[in-house]
Amino acid sequence: MEGTRTMFTIHCNSARDIRKHSYFPSEDEVLLLAGTEFQVKGILNQGHGLRTIQLQEVQSEEPMLIPVPSTNDSVDLSAGKLKSLKVKDDVTESKIISKQTATTTSASISKPKVDASESKFNKWKQNAITVAGGNGYGEGLNQLYWPHRIFIDKNKNIFITDTENQRIVEWKHNAKEGQIIAGGNKQGYRMDQLNRPTDVIVDQQNHSIIIADWGNRRVIQWMNQSQQVLIQNIGCHGLAMDKHGFLYVSVGVKNEVRRWKMREYNNEGIVVAGGNEQGNKLNQLKYPTFIFVDEDQSVYVSDRDNDRVMKWKKDAKEGIVVAGGNGQGENLNQLSSPQGVIVDDLGQIYVADSENDRVMRWCEGQEEGEIVVGENRNGNQSNQLNNPRGLSFDDEGNLYVVDSWNNRIQKVEIVL
């Protein structure tokens, strides 16, 4: 007899990131204080033996932490964010997505800042415009729920992996709400269902979309409401397609990126980055997430758990570090769990520095990057981000950011 599976969705302000101390480094883990109190906000039966319980942390009547006074340092224990917890079953991996935003202020430790006016290249307005979502988390057509990635077509229509809503939504240019174009039939493994999709690309030649259906371990194509599984049994996370039609897939659990020739998916593909077990050497990766492929078929990889971005040239046996790689941190030469990565026409690399709640720009060969947007700590104001994920440009050079934990897509306008 099959038992009931339970997924907890928790909104919490007191979690602390312990991933660096975990026995399972590929999984995000957090620590909660004993005695943390939660209120049940809802119980949803998803079908197929899956139940979702929504919890919200509530303020305890008794103080949980008493600050220790110091004459030297002033410590701000800002709100950590526990975003979702899943009970392990046969389909999904046990996963906790977490966030720590503890910061320290002292005479010797401060968050570096960059004056955007000093940039030699493009500049952006610091107050972004919300172009999708921004109405709280939920499954309404004007809402998103922890989105991951976007794809923008030539008409500025935005295709969004609405991850926790198990769907792909398209927001037409200047629309007030999106429309579901894939999934949206609850979490599941049927052909018309998705399970925590993490990436989407649009094949504009045949008007189809290709989805990294992470929880179902498959890459699936949707075309006119019909579906076809392209690649099966793959721990897919990020997707990219080059100008020749080759499809690239990052496989986080195998620490590699693979490439397939379009319409030839009945093979294991070719390893184009990583594939040498988990590690921090130049020929290794440690849970790669998002990827970008340039005109020369060089592959840029967000090497998440190594806190760096790697560039693997075509047919290379090892990569080069083009951003980060100096340990986890918030200095200008560091990243913290990088996610989205894109490269502009000048070869500048843009990185969603997720746990630092900012977007960074790096020029290849330089030791430091600069902050493009997100200098003001995590938050939900127009000049703030909260765990940014995917990045994209439109044809005018405006930058779009998936502001994941604010459940919105932000447009950062270029200054002409």
TrEMBL record:
CDD domains: NHL. PROSITE patterns: NHL. SUPFAM superfamilies: ADP-ribosylation, Calcium-dependent phosphotriesterase. One of its GO terms (cellular component) is extracellular region. Gene3D superfamilies: 2.40.10.500, TolB, C-terminal domain, Toxin ADP-ribosyltransferase, Chain A, domain 1. InterPro entries: 6-blade_b-propeller_TolB-like, ART, NHL_repeat. It catalyses: L-arginyl-[protein] + NAD(+) = N(omega)-(ADP-D-ribosyl)-L-arginyl-[protein] + nicotinamide + H(+). One of its GO terms (molecular function) is NAD+-protein-arginine ADP-ribosyltransferase activity. Pfam families: ART (PF01129), NHL (PF01436). NHL repeats lie at residues 329-359, 384-411. Its EC number is 2.4.2.31. It comes from the Eukaryota. Keywords: Glycoprotein, Glycosyltransferase, NAD, NADP, Nucleotidyltransferase, Repeat, Signal, Transferase. The keyword Hydrolase does not apply. PANTHER family: PEPTIDYL-GLYCINE ALPHA-AMIDATING MONOOXYGENASE, SMP-30_GLUCONOLACTONASE_LRE-LIKE REGION DOMAIN-CONTAINING PROTEIN. Belongs to the Arg-specific ADP-ribosyltransferase family. This is NAD(P)(+)--arginine ADP-ribosyltransferase. It comes from Adineta steineri.
